[in-house]
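Repro:
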Amino acid sequence: MKTIHKIFSIFFSIIMVFMLLSNVYAKNVAIVTTYQYIASITQQITGDTAKVTYLAPSQFDPHVIVPKPSYIAKLRDADLLIINGAQLEIGWLPPLLRQANNPKIITGKPGFLDLSQFVTKIEVPTAVSRAQGDIHPEGNPHFYLDPYNISLLAKAIYDRLCAIAPENKTLYTENFNAFTTKWKNKLSEWDKTMQKVAGKNVIEYHKLYDYFFMRYKINLAGTIEPIPGIPPTSKHIASLEKYMDAIDVIVQDVYHPVDASQYLAKKFSKPLIVLPHDVGATKDATDIFALFDSIVRRITQ
């Protein structure tokens, strides 16, 4: 018995040493993401094997980010750049990439990952003109606000990480599987909670939560903006007033002016709900799980 116990102890020690060495020699990957939600998903998969940084502050309009020299430095040192895509970054990222001059993270290289390529986008226009406002030719870019799309995005990130750092695949796989299991459980929880607001009529400021509303059968009756990216006019607000009696909720994001939403909410005694659009946009949206916890809690309260 003592001999068997000794052999088992030696075997266990060897396994522990192997696991420690695997972590020591895991490749550290420098990853830059455009938005914080992407960083949160990515960090769930990489664990401690990567330094994940994001560029866009989540309290501001994701379409319009003020470039900083520090962004160029981050991009210059990156092994992998992960973007939302669907032209959400078109107004600010290209100049930064040109100045960073990092051949590893240009389009077509393994170090560049566009998440919009892995989901089905809605509201894809058949033609684009200035009269349509700030419209995206590739469709509505806020696809990540459908929680069911997060699983697709996580898989795309996992696959790319394994491609650029295959020596870390065992660790990535373990973390990815844990993330997937936890996400499936949260989806069941959110689905059940969201049943209570199915069929509600809402208006939102910007076409930001369309994927979320579509997923949970919430009727989008209109937007505070007359067309995307154009501030509301008194004429447009007057047109919204005509059907406010049928509206159940007004949804506002954190970065657009709240005046028009508050005016309609007060005049027609409708609840005004502020929703986060990204991790970090509100204090309770601390990671990708908490982002949807916050959205679901706020819209069903």
